[in-house]
Structures
1.
Amino acid sequence: MSSADRGWVGRAPGRVNLIGEHVDYLGGVVLPAAVDRFTSVSGAPAAEWSVDSDVPGGLAYARAVGEELGAPPQALRVTSTVPPGSGLSSSAALLVAVAAGLAPGLDGAAAALACQRAEQRATGVQVGVMDQFAAALGRRGHALLLDCATLEHRLVPFPDDLVIAVVDSGIHRSLADTPYNQRRREAESGMPRRRRHVESELARVRAFVEALEAGDRPRLGELLKASHRSLRDDFEVSTPVVDALVERAWAVPGCLGARIMGAGFGGSILALLDAGTEAGFGQALEDVAVRFCRTADGAYVR
Ligand code: GLA
């Protein structure tokens, strides 16, 4: 009997992306990490699909991932500490939590691909595979270096005394309401400015991994700042509110650098801080929600 035939539970984390933005759907290399905010789902077979959750909108995702996995209809109860619509990929956390509950024995990469297809089907947004991979196969104490063309991946140690801060711009959106698909088409068709972002971002991912491995923190900060400028000017996925937040973060002592994170068009910014400077950072940005995160294990890490 599979999990789909009886009661089950599944849990998956949200994710940050350290660097490598808007390159996954082009087969680029990305560096996300799973973080310690989680979506938990319990489920049992039922006459039809249903979702009981404080956050609306989960039904289409649950049904799509269930169908991808060949599961019969389920009644689900969802609880989550991944804030929706704010750049931590609450959708991937939900999808991967359902997959982990329904198909715990599946290979993590296969589960991530099933969740990516489910998200594309549920939303019509042609997302890449980065978020689902991070939620499935991220690892505590590490970032996940993922080649989205080959799906080869390896863990890169992430130091304990480097703090991940996620700053919520307050602009919450569903990707289906953004020009995400349009940006993807523009990049795929070779539009020069979009390609300039992609090429420069891929070089930054390589440099970022080298800097992480060498412990070169100033370099990490420079690369985050350059990534933001490129996403703002060449890929045009930032907004004035987000740009202002990023610049405020850059100015805080102990902040190595910051950039818009995830799909953009609002959502969250990512900042990296030297440990011990969190209080000052929180004070400097006290008018917005700041979440300090630690790396965590993905749902398919055993
Ligand atoms: C969203 C998508 C990802 C990726 C990012 C941008 O999070 O789900 O696949 O494309 O945007 O890097």
Note: Residues 31 and 252 are 24 Å apart (CA to CA).
2.
Amino acid sequence: MHSSGDEILQMRAALEWYSAMGVDIALVDEPIDRFAAAAQPVKAPTKATHPANSASTNASRPPAEQSRLQPETHNVDEAKKIANAAQNLDALRAAMEQFDGCPLKHRATNLVFADGNPDAQIMLIGEAPGREEDMQGTPFVGSSGELLDRILASIGLDREQVFIANALPWRPPGNRNPTPAETAVCLPFLIRQIELVAPKVIITLGGAASKTLFETDMGILRLRGKWRELNVGAHSCVAMATLHPAYLLKQPAQKALVWRDVLSLKSKLAELN
Ligand code: URA
């Protein structure tokens, strides 16, 4: 096909517009109208299971948006059922591959399950995969992952001594923030992952994962750097929030805070062993 100069300019403008809107990957050849699907009649409002999902917050929103923000109870129940039935990490991964209750899955290229050593004492929990992670199916392999590796190396750790997962195992399109509904439906899988790894120490990376696990709305700058007892499902351990490496890439001056946090991690490991 031969395109004129004008057509090329138009195509370039369209690509730039897609990119600005967060579209950075083509998944299928034909467009899918998700708005039409969302406009289908929705079930009666369901009870929210996550603190961030109070019905009163969402009641004034249009039905299609409500269904995007509120987890469908049957999907959360199904996630809990299949997550709790998994007796090991391989079974959990298989259950997540089968699960169709999180809309993010249908836009993602890969399930991003975990990386590192399942026998590690330390579990690191990020927010959600980015573009690189989605392409490779492995958490923290992009630029924030490189920084994470350097942070670990600063106290003599590498990926063989930690287990790395995310609060959400599928990439939100264009790296947008996950909705409370998406977070709630993925939470049973994270909880089960924590139970199966049973780490002595959990480090949450960034505000989103920290708020989810500590069940708080406190900002990350206040939350970080303090050890807390964390009870997740049937597992209890100590946990600390720290800043997300992606944030440090934008705010390098804040690396000093993370340096303090990793020194505190080093001391905590010495204390526990
Ligand atoms: N940010 C995250 O929170 N997780 C990843 O896996 C990559 C970037």
Note: Residues 126-130, 133, 139-140, 144, 166, 246 surround uracil (CB under 6 Å).
3.
Amino acid sequence: MRILVVEDEMELCLSIAEGLRMDGFEVDTCFDGSEAWEIIWAERFDLIILDLNLPGMDGMELLHKISDEDIEANVLILSARGQLRDKVEGLDAGANDYLCKPFEFEELESRVRCLTRRKFIRQKVVLECDGITLDSKTRSAKAKDKELTLTRKELGILEYLMMHQGVPVSQEELMEHVWDSNADPFSNSVRVHMSALRKKLRGALGYDPIVNRVGQGYVIGGKTS
Ligand code: CA
């Protein structure tokens, strides 16, 4: 799951990003509204955490552009503007959620979890497929009730596939959602992590639940034959 944090209070921005990375998200940061628009326009995010008072371009203006251009991302407004009309204006402009500053990180975390899941499945923390369970809150996975020791990337890949059970997911798509923007699109990094993940799953389950459909991508669950 990829998140962009747009917030000009640099320290706050970086600490939100750090906290969300610890939760297993891939997080990019941006301190300026118009710069944020360029990034949002060029790349894909599952969630944008958006401050309203921003240099460059105001958060509300950015939000309108996101809606106008049909950018496919959830938006959580994080703002010191706490009046009811601010909230209504933000939600009317297409934001999915609104959190007022000051806030507790725990609350932000829980809303982020909710918004990043909502797009794919309804309110489920534990994903299940083929004897594998993955808890997106504790960032852990089990196969046949045995704990799997996975790296962050391996867990991210598995989570993304499990959220799209039966649907082939391409390397490019994994790159967009499981990697942050520092990733080199020409590296074979997805392949390397994927093969390590499949090896671990094979070890735990006795077979490899991930199928590589040539020309389509990787798929887990569903009818994979
Ligand atoms: Ca601000």
Note: The chain has two domains: 2-121, 126-220.
